[in-house]
Amino acid sequence: MKRTVLTVDDSRAMRDMLRLCLSGAGYAVAEAVDGEDGLLALRRLRPDVIISDINMPRLDGFGFIEKVRAEKDYLGIPILVLSTECDAAKKARARAAGATGWIVKPFEPAKLVSALARVLA
Amino acid sequence: MTDLTSSATGTGRELVAFRIGQQEFAIDITLVREIRGWTAETSIPRAPDFVRGVVNLRGAVLPILDLAARLGLPPAEPSARHVIMVVQMGQQTLGLLVDEVADIQLANDGLIQPTPEVGSELVRQFVRGVLAVDGRMIVLIALDDILPSPSHGVIAA
Amino acid sequence: MMDSMEAIRVTFFQECEEQLAELEAGLVAIEGGTAEPDTVNAVFRSVHSIKGGAGAFQLADLVSFAHGFETVLDEIRSGRLEPRADIMGTMLHAADVLSDLVREARDGTALGIGWREVLADLDAIARHGSVPAEPPPPEADEFGFAPITIRIPTGEPEPMASDPDRLMVEFRPHPTLFARAHDPIPVLRELARLGEARIACDLERLPPLDLLDPEQAYLAWRIELSGVPDTAVRDCFEFLDEDCDLVIGPRSTAGVPPEPEPELALGHLPAARTATAPEPSRPAPSKVSAPSQAAPPPPGAATCGDNAPPPTIRVDLDRLDRLIDLVGELVINQAMLGQRVIEAGVARQPAVATGLDELKLLTREIQESVMAIRAQPVRPLFQRMGRIVREVAAATGKVVRLRTEGEGTEVDKTVVERLADPLTHLIRNAIDHGIETPERRLAAGKPAEGTVRLVAAHRSGRVVIEVSDDGGGIDRSRVRQIAERKGLIPADAQLSDPEVDSLLFLPGFSTTETVSDISGRGVGMDVVKRSIQALGGRLAVASRPGQGSSFGMSLPLTLAVLDGMVVSVADQTLVVPLTAIMETLRPAPGDVRALGPAARVLAIRGGFVPVVDLGEELGFSPAGRAEGAQPVAVLVETSEGACAALLIDSIQDQRQVVIKSLEANYGTIPGIAAATILGNGRVALILDVDALVASSGAPASSSVLSTPLSCSR
């Protein structure tokens, strides 16, 4: 069975790009447009891994990760942050919120896929 | 209205035979979308004499050509007995006014005889062959040049 | 793959437009003090999004500009920089530059280098704001495909890989590792894939089962690797570094040496995992049983939540237009049915009448709903005008504020698209010719800052858009002077104020002597008027000296229907677009006079307008009108400004008609714009008034008129 990746990003172009890259690597892809939407998507499907943006309207990536981690059911889902930023403070904040990993945008498809392989049991 | 597509069976080439005055003509059945009774047209200004006007075909504007006039015969004086053959050519839908539709002929290409040598320009332009059936002579015509392409604006000129 | 990337690229640029509009709106709100708490965030996000996408498409200039922009916005967002007026000015300018860069990137046009100066300004502001504690990382790191490197905070000097062939890795997960949904197994698997690996599990800290806390981490691993570079090993631990004790080093230096035992080959790992309880405790991993959840829907289906922004779908325009066509047919059919019912004499039966009324209402509602699908708010269009105002104000040394109202007003997509040029021109005109310089305004007792108002509203089935200014108003004596000099009016013409104002719309009229770079561009107000009319709209002007001018346009909600006057000509039914009609009258015998061998003119209010006898012109009644029949004259004005009287037999009705193309099945017909289908099911042709008047030989300019007929109704 295909592994499912939930991508959470307010940019459709970015989601499309992730979809292209991930479906090419054999993943099923579900999408959400921001953190709030991501939480709703989580309630309806259980992704094997989440890739989330940080800067998003309504509920940003930090808040999203915190809310995901606050629910026991979702503790086991790896969350990779995909962000243009790479400063240490932001990374630390994401880590504190419960992010599994951090990938810098723009991403290299091969790197993204190998990063996924590393967090997926 | 008669649905002709449902009666299309068998192999070979199916033709719709129709009558204009005392002559019989036929066109390829695949061109014919439907056959309707004649209704009064709305005249088009400065149109060629064989263009009778336009009618409403389920919300689309359908130009009606007097096929008799187009073929150089005396123009039709349409009545309720006349029929319109709605034909589809590429993107264009046209209505052809004829006296009546006779029948459908199944014809192998072998049965279609070459057009006899006649001098008429119009015959050369439209006639593609002649079919002899039970003593009837049915003239096979092509519609390619029936209405000059709208993009060329020939009609408009 | 290429096609997909191209499609994503298109999406990216579409999103950029949305982000730019939001950016502009947000900045204007911040500047005007009407910002919501979240506005600064939204503005930051817009620039940030553009930067993110631009990075993916390797648009380096766009990325670096967006980055500089974003840095300043971040300062504002964090409260470290106050959005003072001068800073907001730079921000708005930067938004314009960003929008240029986006468009240049999209269209592949050559980049100017002016943006670098603006970027320098942004950098200066960011630095002046005296904050960034840490210097920004070098660009290559930030924007290139930065290698994701991780420093391992072991607190010790990093072990040297003196023997690159043999590495010893000691890996002891912390409980937090599992809390972040990491799993050691894929990491070990990844290591084993790199080269020859001997992996041993350290069970030393594993407590007896009854003391085992499932949220603790008890296990550690020692991995001996051969022929694997240590950078590759570090990559495997990329995300784990802070959630474990990790020592990577040459075999000799790494950790506690005793030869690992019991030794497990990697292949045994899964078995070990299930057989022994000592498995790294994953807190409640419930991949199989997800109690509170329904069966997962197919991936991709669950993308939009209940509280998500209004969900939208993209629809092919062709499909939409087909739907609009069908609804047009429904409208016609409903009208035909109504007529048949009357003909059948059953219209008075209550049940029939009620049913018909309901059908009519329903049909109208369906039609309006379908038309609404094509409708778009004018907001993006209005937002673009902010930039025009800033540019023209800067170029003319005037201080101007744009105020907009009714941005949510919706108009047909095509109308919105085609309004950009006329609106731009009107705005340029308002600033260039309307608003005075600050000195003159102050002298006139007005605030130095002029205001241009842009207002949209729905009014009785049409959209009204008004561009007004609080400037000096139209200088009527000057307008007259110019019109006289250009021979547009006789020197002694008696003109009312509105008539003088409407001279502005005459072709060839331009109040600037030289073609101004600002509002001139060789384009006069006549072109604005023509483009509004081409949309089925009307343009009118009102002005008060010293108080300003206002240009109002009224537009149809959609281009699929048109308001028309249904008329009879030689037994044919024709439709005259209402926008072209100025008035209708029944000329007295003798009002229509011959002029030369063929032409005729109609005497009206002391002037003469050329006559177009529709029956003759269209070849419907070659013999001419029956003797004694008194024609009706429809006074029309072409979009060129020429007036003419169309002679018809009678007026039947005035109604909205659905526009049907003639070109698909037939071709263009001179003098005919399109067709429609009337309630009786018959086709009626819609006149192309411009073409008819032009081909009938009526002069295209109204300069022949002794009195220009006011084009206002």
From TrEMBL, chain A:
Keywords: Phosphoprotein
SUPFAM superfamilies tied to this protein: CheY-like (SSF52172)
This protein's record includes keyword Phosphoprotein: yes
Domain Response regulatory: 4-120
Listed Gene3D superfamilies: 3.40.50.2300
A Pfam family reported for this protein in Swiss-Prot or TrEMBL: Response_reg
Residue positions, PTM 4-aspartylphosphate: 53
Name of the featured protein: Response regulator
Species in which this protein is naturally found: Rubellimicrobium aerolatum
UniProtKB/TrEMBL annotation, chain B:
Domain CheW-like: 12-152
SUPFAM superfamilies in the cross-refs: CheW-like
InterPro entries: CheW (IPR039315), CheW-like_dom_sf (IPR036061), CheW-lke_dom (IPR002545)
Classification via SMART domains: CheW
CDD domains xrefs: CheW
Name of the protein: Chemotaxis protein CheW
Lineage per the UniProt record: Bacteria, Pseudomonadati, Pseudomonadota, Alphaproteobacteria, Rhodobacterales
Automatic annotation (TrEMBL), chain C:
Disordered: annotated segments: 273-312
HPt domain sequence ranges: 1-105
EC top class named in words: transferase
This enzyme's EC code(s): 2.7.13.3
Keywords, in A-Z order: ATP-binding, Chemotaxis, Kinase, Nucleotide-binding, Phosphoprotein, Transferase, Two-component regulatory system
Record GO terms (molecular function): protein histidine kinase activity
Task performed by this protein: Involved in the transmission of sensory signals from the chemoreceptors to the flagellar motors. CheA is autophosphorylated; it can transfer its phosphate group to either CheB or CheY.
Catalysed reaction equations from the record: ATP + protein L-histidine = ADP + protein N-phospho-L-histidine
UniProt feature, compositional bias: Low complexity: 284-293
Name of the molecule in the record: Chemotaxis protein CheA
InterPro entries for the chain: Bact_Chemotaxis_CheA, CheA-like_dim, CheA-like_homodim_sf, CheW-like_dom_sf, CheW-lke_dom, HATPase_C_sf, HATPase_dom, His_kinase_dom
Sequence ranges assigned to domain CheW-like in this UniProt record: 561-698
Phosphohistidine: residues carrying this PTM: 48
Keyword check for Phosphoprotein: yes
Lineage of the organism: Bacteria, Pseudomonadati, Pseudomonadota, Alphaproteobacteria, Rhodobacterales
The Histidine kinase domain, residue ranges: 356-559
PROSITE patterns associated with the record: CHEW, HIS_KIN, HPT
